[in-house]
């Protein structure tokens, strides 16, 4: 569960088999790390594995945008900070920033990657969209409020992909 402090944090380390021929974290593994981070978010809002099983509910990712901002190498210790940007009765839009801890050029400064995602609460019996249960919705709202209260500005959110004209 969470005490509604922003941001929520997930930590991981870049494994050697996640690194490509350039010596950098493979692009697909950024999304894997963000997927693990959203699992931590589910735990924080009361939808951990046991609750998902008992309630017959889950979250599906509807859309994800990923910005690769700086290379990451094998062994890097990563910190992903997650914030709730907005929500309604069935959906939550989250923003995640990945940092390479211990990297003086990055730690406390700029993220190495950023992701914006839209998640949908689902009744697995359908599967079909379903409103959040009241306790889960209250936790989502508390995380949104905490993100808002800290004055956080998502630098890489609400972007589209296009060539500059």
Q: Can you offer a commentary on this structure?
A:
The N and C termini lie far apart (46 Å). Strands 1, 2, 3, 4, 5 and 6 form a six-stranded antiparallel sheet that branches. The protein has a single domain, classed as Hotdog Thioesterase (Thiol Ester Dehydrase, Chain A). It has helices at 27-44, 49-55, 134-149, and strands at residues 8-13, 57-68, 77-87, 91-101, 113-123, 128-129. β3 (77-87) and β4 form a beta hairpin. It has 165 residues and is α+β, with helices and mostly antiparallel strands.
Features:
globular, 3 helices, fatty acyl-CoA hydrolase activity, 165 residues, Thiol Ester Dehydrase, Chain A, 6 strands, alpha+beta, 6-stranded antiparallel sheet
Annotate the secondary structure layout.
Blueprint: E1 8-13, H1 27-44, H2 49-55, E2 57-68, E3 77-87, E4 91-101, E5 113-123, E6 128-129, H3 134-149
Antiparallel strand pairs: 1-3, 2-5, 3-4, 4-5, 5-6
InterPro entries: 4-hydroxybenzoyl-CoA_TE (IPR050563), HotDog_dom_sf (IPR029069)
Protein name: Thioesterase
Pfam family, one: 4HBT_2
Major β-sheet annotation: 6 strands, antiparallel
Any low-confidence stretches, pLDDT <50, length ≥5? none
Count of β-strands = 6
Helix fraction bin: 10-25%
